[in-house]
């Protein structure tokens, strides 16, 4: 039997036992996981060093090396992340609905674990711990398939987590790591209907595309964000500038940062020059439509392809529009249904924008950078869903659960 | 452009306009649809006659011909179904959550339509109207792909529905029927990411398998039901007999009927003979394990394959078990996570069964035949989900919706 199948079967078998665990038992295991990670700090850093050296030898980029690196501070923050999960309410067993039928049947809709969750992700080793912790707290076992560049780190992390689970009431098999670096191990996971209940991809566009296009197991799509900010005619100038700059430069590498700024032509006439100067100070390259380039001569010409690109970088498309409808059409055409913002003092325009834009999160007068489980107060986040089924937007613990109807009768039969 | 793509694009374009419609406008359209179906009763029956004649010529089975047939009574009941949908509360716009963050951001989670729903189904023409009505009420446009055996009926039905929509405020393009009988039209629908938001298959196992295995668009899996009834040692004899007989024979052709009866050996010793006689009177063929055949000599031997078969017919597997765990193991191995029942007076056994069995609906002392949107009081049903994402069990209108976070700020930026 392949590594993938045999580990998925172990996770499946452990799911029933995990489902029987109390909140206290799960929290105790999470605390042991945090404690053991702290205790093995030196081992983790040594294993991580192997990944970093291999990465350097293979010439991977400094920014990827940075994401891959573990140090005492990062290990502490990973352990604190587990402690934060302990503090979250356990969603399992929540009664979501409860009613009695005229025939006396008592029907309850109860939150239950999804079962076995597959996570396919890239370089950052902290995802290994975060994802395992969140899945366990929601009563799920997990099959992790991280990037090959972090394999030594992930192997050591999971070894430590297994040691913690052995000391707990939870089945150690609840966390499985696929070690095969071969791409075929991902392909195999995607088809494990019956063993995996859902797959969540976390990473770049190519990784997510591969999962969405090839999985027969249900998928929660996460990630891609071509987010827009539309500055309406009546926007407050200072507010619009602050929101646009924040949405672009506060952290350009993430999915909720802005890629295209749409500006009403009347607002642009008075304010675009100074806003562009401010962005230039922040080292942002502007790619502008023709009308933008009349007001911002140093902007380079924008292309259709640019409008459809998630830069995750210090690059911004700027387009001048004459109406709200033009802005809505542009967003409908190029947006990825992630996060979209209107800056306006016109309540009617705000209302139309919030209703008509089809996205996980729509903002009036606030930066798109807030689309995040922590910023929303969920206390944790397994990712940001950009699909419409099951969960949409930042996903906290309830997104890792399903439901079950429990029916109590006294001999009812159907007539 | 292909028929499938061009119709999906029309449905996509109509989705925005539909999203703006009020509950009153949607209900008015549903009433017009019901009225027009009644008015065109003779045309509908004439079109259906073509399907029936072609079906007879092709030698399709009498039971399929029966499911395909329209008559005045069935058309009236289809129209009444639309009127029932009018009476259901409109889920769109419901505020599911509403909170303010310390930074002053006001976040609401609002119910919104999914957008464009694809339905792939088989012979029964009433599904064309039911599905269109439910999708529209939940603010979705719909792309219908019915079986080729009902094509004349479906074409006429959709012509009548379009006439009704023309007289309403809703966009007529909200309902699209794929007329191509070619299997490739289904395959094309399954890959229309960006145009279709979800696909719901309704029909037999082969149809559902094809959709689940080949779709890149998110799918809500419905249908297959290998349902078990477990009669525990302490079951009330008369209640157990009534529930078992009802679960098997009240309507064997549907997914929530029982395929395998598991009987505790001590209960079997006292009651299985008479229960089997009762089933024989109802023309049920029993396929039994060896111990069953000692008590029921006329039972034929059951095979592994039988345990894994959804008969949808007057055939029942019977297996004697010695413990609750043995019953749980059997269900975990052969069940399809649809509906499972325990008949017992032992509260501890009931509790374990209800918690440990992983299924959409778990019953204590009631027939599995109740897993149904109408029986649950949802007033309608688009199908029964057997997957764990998004919706599980009978799906009413809320299963046809998504959510959106709407965020009101006053210039907040992320620090």
Automatic annotation (TrEMBL), chains A, B:
GO terms for biological process: L-proline biosynthetic process. Keywords: Amino-acid biosynthesis, Cytoplasm, NADP, Oxidoreductase, Proline biosynthesis. Its EC number is 1.2.1.41. PROSITE patterns: PROA. Residues 3-284 form the Aldehyde dehydrogenase domain. Pfam families: Aldedh (PF00171). One of its GO terms (cellular component) is cytoplasm. It is found in: Cytoplasm. Pathway: Amino-acid biosynthesis; L-proline biosynthesis; L-glutamate 5-semialdehyde from L-glutamate: step 2/2. Its main location: cytoplasm. InterPro entries: Ald_DH/histidinol_DH, Ald_DH_C, Ald_DH_N, Aldehyde_DH_dom, G-glutamylP_reductase_CS, Glu-5-SA_DH, GPR_dom. The keyword DNA-binding does not apply. CDD domains: ALDH_F18-19_ProA-GPR. One of its GO terms (molecular function) is glutamate-5-semialdehyde dehydrogenase activity. It catalyses: L-glutamate 5-semialdehyde + phosphate + NADP(+) = L-glutamyl 5-phosphate + NADPH + H(+). NCBIfam families: PRK00197.1 (NF001221), proA (TIGR00407). Belongs to the gamma-glutamyl phosphate reductase family. Catalyzes the NADPH-dependent reduction of L-glutamate 5-phosphate into L-glutamate 5-semialdehyde and phosphate. The product spontaneously undergoes cyclization to form 1-pyrroline-5-carboxylate. This is Gamma-glutamyl phosphate reductase. It comes from Paenibacillus albilobatus. The lineage of its organism: Bacteria, Bacillati, Bacillota, Bacilli, Bacillales. The gene is proA.
């Amino acid at each position: 039997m392949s590594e993938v199948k045999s580990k998925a079967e172990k996770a499946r078998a452990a799911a029933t036992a995990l489902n029987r665990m109390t909140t206290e038992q799960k929290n105790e295991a999470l605390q042991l996981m945090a404690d053991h990670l702290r205790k093995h700090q030196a081992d983790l850093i040594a294993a991580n060093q192997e990944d970093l050296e291999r990465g350097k030898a293979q010439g991977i980029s400094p920014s990827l090396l940075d994401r891959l690196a573990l140090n005492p501070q990062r290990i502490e923050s990973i352990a604190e992340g587990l402690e934060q999960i302990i503090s979250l309410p356990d969603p399992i067993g929540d009664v979501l609905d409860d009613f009695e039928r005229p025939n006396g049947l008592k029907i309850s809709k109860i939150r239950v674990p999804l079962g076995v969750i597959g996570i396919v992700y890239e370089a950052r080793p902290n995802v290994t711990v975060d994802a395992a912790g969140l899945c366990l707290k929601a009563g799920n076992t997990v099959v992790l398939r991280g990037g090959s560049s972090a394999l030594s780190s992930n192997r050591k992390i999971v070894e430590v987590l297994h040691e913690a689970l052995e000391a707990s009431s939870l089945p150690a098999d609840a966390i499985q790591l696929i070690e095969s670096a071969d791409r075929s191990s991902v392909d195999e996971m995607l088809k494990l209907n019956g063993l995996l209940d859902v797959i969540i991809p976390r990473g770049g566009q190519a990784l997510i595309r591969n999962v969405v296009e090839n999985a027969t197991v249900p998928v929660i799509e996460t990630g891609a964000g071509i987010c827009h900010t539309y500055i309406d005619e009546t926007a407050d100038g200072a507010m619009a500038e602050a929101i646009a700059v924040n949405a672009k430069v506060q952290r350009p590498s993430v999915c909720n940062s802005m890629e295209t700024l749409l500006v009403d032509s009347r607002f642009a006439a008075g304010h675009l020059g100074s806003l562009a100067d401010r962005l230039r100070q922040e080292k942002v390259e502007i790619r502008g439509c023709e009308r933008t380039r009349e007001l911002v001569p140093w902007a380079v010409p924008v292309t259709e392809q640019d409008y459809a690109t998630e830069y995750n970088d210090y690059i911004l498309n700027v387009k001048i529009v004459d109406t709200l409808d033009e802005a809505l059409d542009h967003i409908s055409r190029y947006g990825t249904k992630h996060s979209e913002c209107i800056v306006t003092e016109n309540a009617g325009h705000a209302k139309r924008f919030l209703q008509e834009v089809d996205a996980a999160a729509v903002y009036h007068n606030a930066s798109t950078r807030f689309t995040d489980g922590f910023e929303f107060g969920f206390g944790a986040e397994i990712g940001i869903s950009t699909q419409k089924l099951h969960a949409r937007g930042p996903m906290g613990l309830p997104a890792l659960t399903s439901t079950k109807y429990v029916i109590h009768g006294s001999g009812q039969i159907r007539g």
